[in-house]
Design goal:
Shape: globular
Structural class: alpha/beta
Bound molecules: guanosine-5'-triphosphate, magnesium ion
Strand content: 15-25%
Number of helices: 5
Helix content: 25-40%
Oligomer: single chain
CATH class: Alpha Beta
Order of helices and strands: EEHEEHEHEHEH
Number of strands: 7
């Protein structure tokens, strides 16, 4: 799968009505600063099309990137950012929930977890909530370049155990720096798109 073009088509704030898109959507969820926007950039071969920041809480809107005029990557705001007020956090939570509930085109959800750490309570809740809504989240263990290669297996297993990901579901180690895992993720996206055509 080659991503030829990417276009930020819609940006939704807390009060926006979400678009009723006609094309397939893939969403990226995860804690603030885990690397959602960086993953989108890496998949699209862009350095900084999706805005990233070393400060958590960068993406505060739901951003719809149209890919190859064919499908969407949906960049969700990060959860669990302590510096945001409780009311704002609740609003974002509702917004993410509303998106996951109401999108008719959502094909798959990528849930990003920092490979270095045990999944948090928020991560576990998100995983369970996604499963509860009828999806199997595709778990991406991010920032793999921060570990030695010899540590990757142990840490992906830690993420798998922490969330309770079944053995037949993947946990993909990914790095936006080295691009480890990128082709595997693109292949999964392609498979999802082909599955749609076959049905
Ligand atoms: N070393 C390393 N740093 C990464 C990687 N992915 C992201 N980062 C860094 O982590 C920080 C956060 O990345 P973002 O992509 O902005 O994270 P986000 O999940 O979109 O964050 P919010 O928009 O705040 O929810 C940035 O400083 C990135 O450069 C990675 O694979 N390796
Ligand atoms: Mg972001």
């Amino acid at each position: 799968m080659i991503i030829k073009n990417v276009n930020l088509e819609t940006v939704c704030g807390i009060t926006s009505t979400l678009p009723r898109n006609a094309s397939t959507e893939f969403a990226f969820a995860g804690k603030s600063n885990v690397g959602k926007s960086s993953l989108i950039n890496a998949l699209c071969n862009r350095k900084s099309y999706a805005r990233t920041s070393s400060q958590p809480g960068k993406t505060q809107t739901i951003n719809y990137y149209k890919i190859n005029d064919e499908f969407y990557f949906v960049d969700l705001p990060g959860y669990g950012y302590a510096k945001v007020s409780k009311t704002d956090r609740e609003k974002w939570g509702k917004m993410i929930e509303n998106y996951l509930h109401t999108s008719r085109q959502l094909k798959a959800i990528f849930l990003l977890i920092d490979i270095r750490h045990e999944p948090s309570e928020n991560d576990k809740n998100m995983y369970e909530w996604i499963v509860h809504n009828g999806f199997y989240p595709i778990v991406i263990a991010t920032k793999a370049d921060k570990l030695k290669r010899s540590q990757l297996q142990k840490h992906t297993n830690m993420v798998r155990k922490g969330l309770g990901v079944p053995e037949n579901q993947p946990v993909i180690a990914f790095s936006a720096e080295s691009k480890l895992g990128k082709e595997e993720i693109l292949t999964m996206i392609e498979d999802y798109l082909n599955e749609r055509e076959a049905n």
